[in-house]
């Protein structure tokens, strides 16, 4: 087989939620062996079958999985792929994806990129045999092939995930690669300038250094009821907390995500506890912090990234308040959930690593005091009034504070990059905690900026 048939090309590799998704890692390597650069797109269900971390490590690019996510420079991720990919290959393609694509339903990054792109598209279906033989599936395949001009790499016959034998196995990878090469043909490279293409990872992918760990993350804002219709809230989007959850999952952690009001999708591999009010968040934390036998901790670290309302109406109305000329609310302070969580966690063994967040405006002086008052191991402080560091942004500029280490002022980074740096510190502290428990010493590593 000729090598480098795809030299200089950018291939968009769309992966959907079929059990055959595990073969996508091999397909990525095969495309790279032909000289291509690969940008991976994942549907939400695909993340249950293949780890984004492995795909990022091999491709050298962040995986696109959130339809609403923006790149660090403000561009729309799946649109950048649509505009610069020389070909998009969807392998494996599920029956659900075929139906959505045939009807123009852009509910995930893979269909959205295909709809927005003038590049050729190669589709390799994989599913149960009876499902592939169903008239609805056959009609969708025919429409993609005959009306849309997509190249269909028909599945093969063999033993399927159900244990039955039939036509539905993902095509042999060499056939898919050949179809990609044929689809590109002698077309010119669409976007040779790397600046136009999706960005590459700024550093190396992290190892699975949280494998076997249970990490709890809180994310989003809380809403405090005024009446059954109205509430007091804050501007938190939940992006930072969700980025932390995704990064922890990619590093092998078991992840419990306590999510309040969020504007982004939640990682499907996480155990999600949905809450709305501060009281509900307090109850969820109480369940997590509840000591087991002999005060054994059921988790390794608690990252309190949620933006908890500081006040709530003292007496919320039980029915909708009528509209009037003015409305006076009597507010009361909400419980200090971070301080309470720290106090409860310090009674557990082994003691979990505790991380707090402090959103300030104008100065981070109060954050230093908060580190001491709350008793957390690490405090992530940022000035939300700074450009690119406020609520809802895809970037953040933070200072990491610790009682036993110098402060680290990090540059403006994507929230995923902030998450990875923070988890670097967390993983080191967990390793030191466990080593100290074995030797009877109390050690915490002195961290240095990276």
Description:
The chain is of the alpha/beta class. Strand 1 (10-15), helix 1 and strand 2 form a beta-alpha-beta unit. An 8-stranded mixed sheet has the order 12-11-8-13-16-17-19-20, with helices on both faces. It has a 5-stranded parallel sheet with strand order 2-1-3-4-5, sandwiched between helices. It folds into 2 domains: 10-184, Rossmann fold; 214-439, 3-Layer(aba) Sandwich (Rossmann fold). Helix content is 31%, strand content 21%. Mean pLDDT is 89; it is low at 442-450. The chain has 13 helices and 21 strands. Helix 1 runs parallel beside helix 2 (52-59) and helix 9 (239-250) packs across helix 13 (415-439). The longest helix is centred in the C-terminal third of the chain and has 25 residues, at 415-439.
CATH topology of the largest domain: Rossmann fold
Mean pLDDT: 89
Shape: globular
Q: How many domains in all? A: 2
Strand order of the largest sheet: 12-11-8-13-16-17-19-20
Radius of gyration: 25 Å
Name the CATH architecture of the largest domain. Answer: 3-Layer(aba) Sandwich
Given the structure, what is the number of helices?
A: 13
Low-confidence stretches: 442-450
Beta-strand content estimate:
15-25%
Sheet having the most strands? 8 strands, mixed
Helix content: 25-40%
CATH H-tier superfamily of the largest domain: CoaB-like
Our measurement of the CA-to-CA distance between the termini, rounded to an integer number of angstroms, reads 43 Å
Task: Identify the CATH class of the largest domain.
Answer: Alpha Beta
Keywords:
31% helix, alpha/beta, Rossmann fold, single chain, globular, eight-stranded mixed β-sheet, five-stranded parallel β-sheet, 450 residues, 21 strands
